Amino acid sequence: MFETDGVPVQDTWCDYMFGDGHRVTHGRLYSPRYPSTYPTNVRCNYHFHAGQHERIKLIFEEAFLQKGDESCLNRADIIKVFDGRTPSAPVLAMLCNELVGYEILSTGPDLLVQFTANSNEPGQGFKANFQFQSDDYNTSTASTVEILDSEVNKKSGPDSTLGLGPAVSAATSSCHQAVNSDKGRTGKLLSPSYPEPYPPKTHCHYDFTARGRQRVRLIFEDFALHKIDDNHLDCESMDSLDIFLYVDGRLEKMASYCGSEAPKPIMSNGPKLSIEFRGIYSSKLSRGFKISYFFVEDYGIKSGKQLMEFPCAFVYNSSLAGKGEITSPNYPGLYPRDSECNYFFYGTKVQKVHLHFTYFDIEGVFPCEAVSASDYVQFSHEMVNYKSDRYCGQLKELHVTSEKNFLRVTFKSNDRLDGTGFRAEYKFLRDVDVQLIQTVTASSASKYRYCPTI
């Protein structure tokens, strides 16, 4: 019943091949002995080789490795997904702990899934399904057509496709757009008739699909929806724009926006994001919205050097920059759900790194553990460390000094609530300079919730 649909690789215990000369275009894969506990001290490789003009869609329906919400860097049981044939390819995902409904879309015809189990307490394992898709799959299934901007701007009315950009669906009576990163990495999304008022009874859907390491990022340049009066605070009864994410394999509303206050930037938690616009009333002051969208791989983090061997990781070396700043993903907007980002600091032998957090808003309650469904930031002077303290909540300021010349900062969010993240200034300092900073911060420590040296 639980048999992997690939071809076993000769002289291996649990490696499988999918595709190449074996034209299986869809199927299932499992960890060894699933649904029973998988063995320890194993490494299984699942090789996917689609056709020249095909991509691979992979969905982990369930993965139960180890309980808790530890960083995947601290886990001995882990699933890595590489965007290519070998482990030298960019890493699309590092999966650990427990998850449901996690989707991955390759950028090309090859994908490698590597399952490593080295813990003393192995879990149930995983089950997943895959599908080989043609390059034009998203376009054909969305029934999209190309519409020139000059033609778009001639249209009007609630059923028009006005202002929708390069890929607009003609499949529904209401405006609808399916945007995928194959057509371009950036673009504009305009409400019907923008900047003129949108027609009453407008109902629009916008579906975004990214590939590989990409996330969808939305930046609101203009936002003015009809507001009934100041007594109506619920967006459900007014013209509104709703953001939907895929959580545990299901479409779930992340937020609703109405009125005239522009939302902060939004980032998807995976390859897909959807928008629903309901313009029930409209008025002469209802310009609608103008949104810039981006398919990004850097999570909106503009400092450091991004590493390809992790889904979201950045390195800061004192030989390249003695000081700078780091931010959470998508800062100053809401950070994405179900995400882990690591920041690695490397100084010389006589240096330490000092971090001064000038903004800190991480959803959760101290001690920031899984039982309270808390997101967290964690600091460690070793690459793997299970015992470091976690930090969450809203802090006025936070000072952190490394114990050695290396510091790892881990940000981890779950699929529940959202925060606006953090901003911190970093400096690489000699011991004498570190002692001076610690003296200053200790003298005013009553202002801070935390002031650790790790």
Automatic annotation (TrEMBL):
The keyword S-adenosyl-L-methionine does not apply. PROSITE patterns: CUB (PS01180). Residues 14-133, 175-296, 312-429 form the CUB domain. Keywords: Disulfide bond. SMART domains: CUB. GO terms for cellular component: plasma membrane. InterPro entries: CUB_dom (IPR000859), Non-NMDA_GluR_Accessory (IPR053207), Sperma_CUB_dom_sf (IPR035914). This is Suppressor of lurcher protein 1.
